Amino acid sequence: xxxxxxxxxxxxxxxxxxxxxxAFGRFDLSRPDDYRAFLVAxxxxxxxxxxxxxxxxxxxLLPDWPERRRRPALARDLAWLGAAVPDEARIPPLPLADEAxxxxxxxxxxxxxxxxxxxxxxxxxxxxxxxxxxYLGHGAGGMLWPAFLARLEAAAPTLAWPxxxxxxxxxxxxxxxxxxxxxxxxxxxxxxxx
Length: 194
Known about the structure:
Layout lengths: L4 H8 L1 H11 L7 H24 L2 H4 L3 H4 L2 H10 L18 H25 L20 H12 L5 H24 L2 H7 L1
Helix pairs in contact: 2-9, 3-6, 3-7, 3-9, 3-10, 7-8, 7-9
C-alpha cells in the first residue's frame, strides 16, 4: 500500500513540527500573562497565513473556508485578555506561489487545530482564562480535519510535491518564528511588531 499524502507530509515536516512544539512549549498556559503572550504569538502567525491563503484563493480549494477561518475567534480572545488585535492592513500576507503551496500551508494550519483542542482542555481548567477559549476550541466536535484530509488526498494527483512540502514547512516556520519572538517580547510589542 502506498504512503498517503498525509503520512508523507508528516514525515517531511517532523523537524519543523518539533521546533514549533518546543518554541510554544515555553509558555505556561496556566498563567494569564503567558496565555496572553501565547495567543499574541499565534496571531503573529495566523494573520499572515490566513491572509496569504485568502489572497491565493483558498475558497476555491475549501468551499467551507469561512467556517475554518480562525482570525475572528482569536481576535475575540485577544480582546477578552486585553491584548491588541492585529491591524490586518499592516500585516503582509504569507506569499503562496501556487495551489500546491496553499495545500501545504493548509495542512499545517488545519493540523494545528488538533493541538489546539488538547490545549483548550488544559486552559479550560483555569477559571481566569475560561472566557478566552474561542481560538483553541474553534471547530471542536466538528469534522473539519477529516474533511480537509479527504480534499487533500483528492487533490494529490495534481499537486507538485516540492511546492506542497515548501508550503507546509513555511507555515510551520511562521509559527516557530512567532513563538520565539513572542517569548522574547512583552505582548504589546509582539503584536505591534507583527
